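Crash report, auto-generated. Payload:
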Amino acid sequence: MHVVVLAGGLSPERDVSIRSGRRVANALRAADPSIDVIERDVDSTLLKSLHSDAPDCVIPMLHGAAGEDGAVRDVLDGLGIPYVGSGPDACRLAFDKPVAKALLRAEGIATPRSVALPHSTFRELGAASVLDALVAAVGLPAVVKPAKGGSALGATIVNDASELPAAMVNAFAYGDVAMIESFVAGVEVAVAVVDTADGPRALPAVEIVPDSGFYDYTARYTAGSTEFFVPARVSQEHSDALAKLAVRVHTSLGLRDWSRTDAIVTSEGAMFLEVNAAPGMTETSLMPQALTNAGMDLGELTAYLVRAAVARG
Amino acid sequence: MNAKGSRLDPWVDSYATRARGMTASEIRALFSVASRPEVVSLAGGMPFVQALPMDAIGEMSARLIRERGAQALQYGSGQGDPTLREQIIEVMREVGIEGHPDEVVVTPGSQMALDIVVRIFCDPGDVVLVEAPSYVGALGVFRAYECDVIHVAMDNEGLLPSALEETIAAVRASGRKIKLLYTIPSFHNPAGVTQGPQRRSEILAIAQRAGILILEDDPYGLLGFDGGPPPRAIRADESDGVIYLGSFSKTIASGIRVGWALAPHGVREKLVLASESAILCPSNLAQFTVSEYLATQPWRQQIKVFQEIYRERRDALLDALKTYMPEGTTWTVPAGGFYSWLTLPQGLDSKAMLPRAIAALVAYVPGTGFYVDGQGQHELRLSYCYPDPDRIREGVRRLGAVMESELELMQTFGADMPRHDSQGPQTPAPDLG
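Recovered output after restart:
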């Protein structure tokens, strides 16, 4: 079998993607040496090579735009090439944080208050008055982040209204729409979901305790700068609620094969923050830790998902 | 339930304090995109090695292995190959230096020479004076040895003597000892400016009066654009008070990794011991390659080829800046070397703007990387050495559009908003030096 792992691309998460792709590719090679695994960047020669040497399956390990917004998967669908992971529509819903939150909120899933606005709204209505309205709607402290994108790039925790303009500009550096979301103090967790023969299964929640207090890019990708607890140190009741939440997110948005839901646990329960259709698989990423704790092997899981993708065509 | 979590690094409590700043960063993540061909990278200082006579070098290298392979592939002298050291003396005559081969210590790139100089001179907390801004790779070395780096202001002719005197007086008044004055007098990285002869004399006189050792870094000295003789090195007029760092990275090839230090006798002895403890010896293969190149290839003519290529690219950059930069932007006009230094219109932050620039497929280095103290937010470095003139023009056009849109954003949210704390120097990616 011939499998292509797509990694890299032009997103700011290119480096993360390359590392995720490498890890998945190596794990797959180790799990099933009969599979011919090739790692490949996404560039103007990709389609030609997919045409001339069509793989049996593609594993898109692209993070950020094009990778998680469904575009590449649309192309793969068009070419009739099976791939591991969610389809384009589900990716679009998951990648757009405000859209995902709105859909899930409508299904009764708790999520912090938030407002998402494009830069043009601030320009047309005046930034000061819009920011005042945002603070009134969401409250402080708040988290400001790009509406699309991952790895906490462009994200800032704002404790005082005077910090908001700079936080907005930082978020707009990564996209045209910024989201301001009420900061909820609690236990920060990530719950991965994998599709098995018995349906979607939530893996143990990974609790995230960054030394800096903010799980930003540095805390995510510098080994040692964040402490992880697997399973998370939450009550059984909350643990069960997290598992249910992650599976509901996975199914409600139509996600497939694997996903990772980020959530916050308070005394009142679990709240949805965001979901990733292409979870990070680097040495410091969360999903591999959950797999290990669950006694699962990344390579074997990937091989299983490859076969499932090929079977569904 | 686990009492202690996992940190994914069992040695997290064992690292030295100096490793504290060695973290993943958004900036480095963004630069990984800059390597894609769609991006016009005005960030990296990569010499245009494609201009080298590759066939001739290939034949030369094959002959070298064929005829001297057993020696080239063996350990060598810690101080460096004697023949190459003699040739280095000849190269340094171009910048007015009359030295002796015994005073030369060959290293794997001048970065290593810089490292061992700081290693033998600086204890933690010792003061090192550097230009404002200064070479990011040097700042990384100073930080690794826990030096207290103090920036000294520059103008369009480099380091300001008056500012240097004031800084020396202020440091002395605080009871601290200044170990080194690190300067790049010719075609400065990143500022693109050059000290004139008078300026060099004044700086040398101040350092001599204050008893401060000058560390003169001169990787670009032979890459001037005016057709005249290269700027005369400070070391040409003072042998005991100056350590001179030279490099073949820009005049031959950066991938060969051969540089050197020229140091007074006592210093040289310690440099050799420090170098041996770090690397045993520089690569014989790399040294012999450089030596053969200098002996058999028209290296002065090749430098003229490089000068002409870089001059044309410098001109393309300056023309494009005039055309595309928004009002309020200023830049230096380099007379040689690889870089121009931009000061942005009020309110623009070069680090905050970088993601938008990368999305627009143009890359630069934000100014904050060239300071240890958070300065440089409103500055950035543009490199013109690698892309061809058309790509340079396109890159500057893209950058101009990014700045315009960033200015609009500033207009919306206010130009003088408080920003995040800027990070200090980070270990540079090899192609960003």
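Post-recovery validation: Chain A touches chain B through 46 residues (CB under 8 Å).
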